[in-house]
Each structure stands twice: as structure tokens, then as C-alpha cells.
Amino acid sequence: MQSVSLGRTRLFVYEDGAALTGGLAETLVELSAACVSERGRFALALSGGSTPKALYRLLAEDRFSKRMPWASTHLFWGDERCVDPDHPDSNFKMVDDALIKSVPIPSTNVHGFTGQGDDPARAAAAYEEGLRAFFALNGDDLPQFDLILLGLGPDGHTASLFPGTTALLERRRLVVPVYVDRLATWRVTLTLPVLNNGRHVAFMVAGADKQPMVTRVLSGEGPPLPAQLIDPAGTLSWYLDRAAAAGLAELEPAAEGRA
Ligand code: 6PG
Fold first, then answer.
1. Model pTM score
2. Atom 3, ligand 1: which residue's CA is nearest?
3. Is 176 left (phi over 0), alpha (psi -120 to 50) or beta?
4. Which residues form the domain of 173?
5. Is it the case that residue 114 has pLDDT exceeding 70?
6. Residue 255 forms part of a structural domain
7. How far is the CA of 232 from the centre of ligand 1 (A)?
8. 159: CA distance to ligand 1 center in Å?
9. How far does Cα 163 stand from its chain's mean position?
10. What is the mean pLDDT of residues 87-100?
11. I need a surface site. Which of 4, 137, 155, 256 has the fewest CB within 10 A?
């Protein structure tokens, strides 16, 4: 694994997808133990899509699952598709199949969206209420997740903050519904203030198809894309495989940290 810093951002580059998944699983297990030790719980906001599926499956394997403090771990979703929870596109279903069904996490620790298939606005409001209750928020307080996992879309979106959507401009609400023209579908998503309040925020991006967008986002050039607006109060890390990181000059062989 090679690690380099880009300003405040830490990059961790692994030879391939399997090494990336193993490295991030190890980081997540270690962080969960530290958070439970310090604050009695580990509040994790999960990314959807296809990339993190391998990570969730790995966390369900004994070599990681037996080290996870499941009784004190709380799972949330960074965003959800507005479909029923048993729909193939559901992020909840993806995590349920890959992880939740195989680990001893109390059902009360699994905080999925509800009702988004029927009424995105009501589902977003209900999820926001749930966040306010869980994190005991007052007024304009923001929830602080211990770890927020994010992915990167081909257009630079992350969570369901897509370019050109009003969701990107939201600074008051914690969760909003968003209609995504490109996909002709509704989503619900955590908003930027919430994502940027994470103690630790980690992008997980793999594959050569993501290389151009990884390079574009991390170069900081051009009009800001949603993924470039992720600038958390806490740590910001990018967990990449070498294919996705191939365009980053900072990773020339002479770079520090090659292990
Ligand atoms: C979703 C995710 C979304 C995802 C990116 C990358 O619900 O789809 O929240 O932001 O992380 O689109 O998706 P892949 O991992 O499938 O490339």
C-alpha cells in the first residue's frame, strides 16, 4: 500500500481491489474499536452503489466480523434510492444481503430509510427526525458520524449529491429528496453540512473507469464537482486501487510511503 498526503487529504493506494477492500476493512475495524472505547458507540454512514459491496461482504467474514463491536455499532446510509427495501436497486438491500444478514448486529442498530419508495420528501423528513433523535440534536446542531463512507460517480457525484441539483445548495436540512434528471429517478441523501461534519470521511474508489474522475476531483481543477465539496471538519481519506489512482502524479515511484 502506498500512502501520500494531498494537503489535508490522505491517499491510500492499494495494488488491486482485494487489497483495497482488505485495507479499508482493517481501518474500519480499528476505528470502530477506538470510537466505542472513547464514546461507547460507532456511528457509521454507509455508501451505496457497487464498489463497497466487497467491503461489506468482507466485514461479514469471521476474521473481521468477530473483531467488530456490533452491539455498539450503528449503521446509517449516506443516501438511498427511492425504491422499496427489497428492490434490486436498494442500497439497504445491498448492505442487508452483503453484511447485515450475516453479523450479530441488533436490528435497532440498523437505521435504514423508510417510505422512500412512496414519498421521497416524507422519507427524507423522517430520516432527519431519526438523526435528530439518535444524535440528540438541538436547533441547528449537526449529527457527527464517526465514519462516513463515500463513493464517486462518473459525473463527480457522491452520496446522491449530483451536479446541478438543488440538494448541493442545502445548508439547513440534514436530509433532502433529490430528483436526478440523468437517471430519471428520485433519491434521498444526507446533505453537505452533514457529510462535512464527519469525524472521518473516506472515499472508496476502484477501477480504471474511475481514474479520470479521481484525477479531476483530486486535482481541484475546473468548476467544483460535488465530490470536491467534501471538506470535512475531521479527516478526509481516499482509499483507491492503483487503477483508479493511475492519473495522480503525486504517486510517482519516488513518492513517500511506498510499502
Ligand atoms: C449510490 C451511491 C453513489 C455511489 C457512486 C459510485 O447510491 O449509488 O451513494 O454515490 O457511491 O455512484 O457508485 P459505484 O460504486 O457503483 O461506482
1. 0.96
2. 159
3. beta
4. 2-250
5. yes
6. no
7. 19
8. 7
9. 17
10. 98
11. 256
Question: Relative to the CA of 207, which ligand 1 atom is closest?
Answer: 17
Residue 167 lies in a domain: yes
Is residue 30 included in any domain, yes or no? yes
- Grid coordinates 454507509 are at which residue? 46
Query: Does a structural domain hold residue 258?
Result: no
Question: What number does the ligand 1 atom closest to the CA of 78 have?
Answer: 9
Q: Provide the domain count of the chain.
A: 1
Question: Domain containing 169 — which CATH number?
Answer: 3.40.50.1360
226 lines ligand 1 (CB under 6 A): no
How many other C-beta atoms can be found within 10 angstroms of the C-beta atom of residue 116?
27
**64 falls in which pLDDT band (50, 70, 90)?**
very high
Residue 232: CB within 6 Å of ligand 1?
A: no
What does the pLDDT look like over 163-202, one tens digit per residue? Answer: 999 999 999 999 999 999 999 999 999 999 999 999 999 9
Tell whether ligand 1 has an atom less than 6 A from the beta carbon of residue 116.
Answer: no
What burial class does residue 88 get, using C-beta atoms within 10 Å of its C-beta: 0-12 exposed, 13-18 middle, 19+ buried? exposed
Contact 197 CB / ligand 1 (< 6 Å): no
